[in-house]
Amino acid sequence: MSGHKAVIIEDNAEISRFLEAELQRDGRFESITTIDDGTEGLDVLMRSKVDLVLMDVELPGMSGFDILKNLVNPPYVILVTGYDSYAKEAFDYGTIDYVSKPVNPDRLAISLDRAHALIAKSMTGDKQIVLDTLGTTFKGVKRNIFVTFSNIVYISSNAKHSVLHTINDQIEVIGTLKDVESKLPISRFRRVHKQFVINMEYLSHIEYFSGGSHVAYLKDDEKSQIPVSRIYLHEI
């Protein structure tokens, strides 16, 4: 038993029981606390040392985002909600993942594996250092935005700024593609075109077409196709 402590903040009793059962099946949590009210959830998080929170956004008493606003040093958070429109704001607050309802157990298991890895690293080092390896903060059009590297599928440039194409959304950030590229780990991201950088974790294959053109096929839900310039082929 690793001794990890989890809190579930969810007002739907059926979903709360499901999440609790999944965490119990995971087998790596010493304690699991369930709460059905946002205000009570904030109180518990402010008084207790918690490693991971699974939390809805729309809660009685106080929203999940309001809880995060009131925590100086929040634990790792996975947002579990039925509204995809919250995805962008979720990553603005530095949550480590966003899981849509109805929750797929296999998808949740991936999130829990990520959480356990981050918790383990935090036990041997500073949490900010861990977060720096998890993602980085970009200057958004309206405010700074923390984005996890694993959620970025690819980055494109437009006339003025760059666009992060994540698994849930498109986020416009200030800066050239070169500026954005400098904030990314070279072990995971590659420039493939003057207007595109891709996350190699999402690369399926590269296809050659007559006339000398190449296209990178990505493994995201959109099955994105990104042009590849010949001068960058050796980088992939």
Biggest pleated sheet: 5 strands, parallel
Count of all domains: 2
Q: SSE order, as H and E?
A: EHEHEHEHEHHEEEEEHEEEEE
CATH topology of the largest domain: Rossmann fold
Q: What radius of gyration results from the CA coordinates?
A: 19 Å
CATH class of the largest domain: Alpha Beta
pLDDT < 50 runs, ≥5 residues: none
Name given to the CATH homologous superfamily of the largest domain: Response regulator
Overall 3D form:
elongated
Question: How many distinct beta strands?
Answer: 15
> Which band does the percent of strand residues land in?
25-35%
Distance between the termini: 41 Å
The name of the CATH architecture of the largest domain is: 3-Layer(aba) Sandwich
Structural class: alpha/beta
Order of neighbouring strands in the sheet with most strands: 2-1-3-4-5
Mean pLDDT: 87
User: What is the share of helical residues?
Assistant: 25-40%
SS field, number of helical segments = 7
Walk me through this protein's architecture.
It is elongated and about 60 Å long. It folds into two domains: 5-124, Rossmann fold (3-Layer(aba) Sandwich); 134-232, OB fold (Dihydrolipoamide Acetyltransferase, E2P) (Beta Barrel). Strand 1, helix 1 (13-26) and strand 2 (29-35) form a beta-alpha-beta unit. The relative contact order is 0.09. It is of the alpha/beta class. It has a five-stranded parallel β-sheet. It is built from seven helices and 15 strands. Residues 5-116 form the Response regulatory domain. Keywords: DNA-binding, Phosphoprotein. The modification 4-aspartylphosphate is found at residue 56. InterPro entries: CheY-like_superfamily, LytTR_DNA-bd_dom, Sig_transdc_resp-reg_receiver, WalR-like.
